[in-house]
Design a protein that fits this description.
Elements (H helix, E strand, L loop, with lengths): L3 H14 L2 E5 L5 H11 L2 E3 L7 H6 L3 E5 L5 H17 L3 E4 L7 H13 L4 E5 H7 L22 H15 L2 E5 L3 E4 L3 E5 L12 H13 L4 H19 L4 H14 L2 H7 L2 E5 L1
Parallel strand pairs: 1-2, 1-3, 3-4, 4-5, 5-6
Antiparallel strand pairs: 6-7, 7-8, 8-9
Helix pairs in contact: 1-9, 2-8, 6-7, 8-9, 9-10
């Protein structure tokens, strides 16, 4: 297992450096994504006009793309931003929202992945299956019941994601009640978080932004584990039966939770293929 104390050091690195993170996301999620990035100690910009994204990427330390609520203009902007980020060699993350439900998004995502190297590809299990050309039971942007991660299918889902790793040389994050972080030679099973995270719009989008903040200071595996633990342990500490209160508590916890609390509650298992 990766050294958890080493992973937690990345919180201080982000706070010390305050890297600018360029997140091209959907309007439903912009506030959550920006606030999530800010809560890590990084700075956020969500510029999405095709004529300015190259300038913004050139001053940023990581680029995060989100396919939710996709528009023609944002598709152009993402292509330009990806090209610029590739030339600059800064970390790229792709949140493949909705590719299991929309041919437009699936084709577009595959085109981006063929033309540019993404350090991280994130999606729920329905979305990752769709990217792999496996039958998906996606329900809109949500995971289909048959695709949900459970004890009996963790190994098979990890093997599906591994094929994406091998094809695109990317780290794959399958998010859900249980999270799978997959590399070419191993995978990590993360069992933190609470159900309320699925009842607040854009917490998954926010997670991608938070991970992108950590990708600005470390490799995508450490960044993903750090982002997952920060969000999901914070959610455990914030949990309540009042959703509005939960959201306020969650943002408080993300920005103030002690490393010792994360370390004590972290539930991660590492498995070699």
């Amino acid at each position: 297992m990766k050294n958890l104390n080493q992973i937690l050091l990345n919180r201080k690195k982000v706070r010390d450096r305050s890297p600018l993170i360029h997140a091209i996301t959907n309007p439903i999620a912009i506030t959550m994504v920006a606030n999530g990035i800010l809560a890590t100690g990084a700075k956020a910009i969500c510029a999405a006009h095709p004529d300015e994204v190259s300038e913004i990427v050139n001053m940023s330390k990581a680029l995060s793309l989100n396919l939710g609520n996709i528009t023609s203009e944002r598709m152009v902007a993402m292509r330009k931003a990806s090209q610029c980020a590739s030339k600059k060699n800064i970390p790229l993350a792709l949140d493949a929202v909705g590719v299991g439900a929309s041919t437009l998004r699936l084709t577009y995502a595959q085109d981006l992945l063929e033309k540019h190297h993404f350090d991280l590809i994130k999606g729920n299990s329905s979305e990752i299956k769709a990217l792999c050309g496996v039958k998906s039971e996606a329900l809109g942007i949500d995971v289909g019941k048959k695709d949900e991660i459970r004890d009996g299918n963790i190994e098979s889902l990890a093997q599906i994601a591994r094929k994406l790793c091998q094809k695109y040389k990317s780290i794959i994050l399958i998010s859900g009640k249980t999270d799978l972080l997959v590399t070419e030679d191993r995978y990590f099973v993360v069992n933190n978080g609470v159900e309320n995270l699925s009842k607040i719009t854009a917490t998954g989008c926010m997670l991608t932004g938070m991970i992108s903040s950590f990708m600005a200071v470390t490799d995508p595996v450490e960044a993903s584990l750090m982002g997952l633990l920060l969000l999901e342990v914070s959610a455990e500490m914030a949990n309540t039966d009042r959703l509005g209160t939960f959201l306020v508590n969650l943002m408080d916890e993300i920005s103030t939770i002690e490393d010792e609390v994360i370390s004590k509650r972290a539930d991660i298992r590492e498995v070699e293929f």
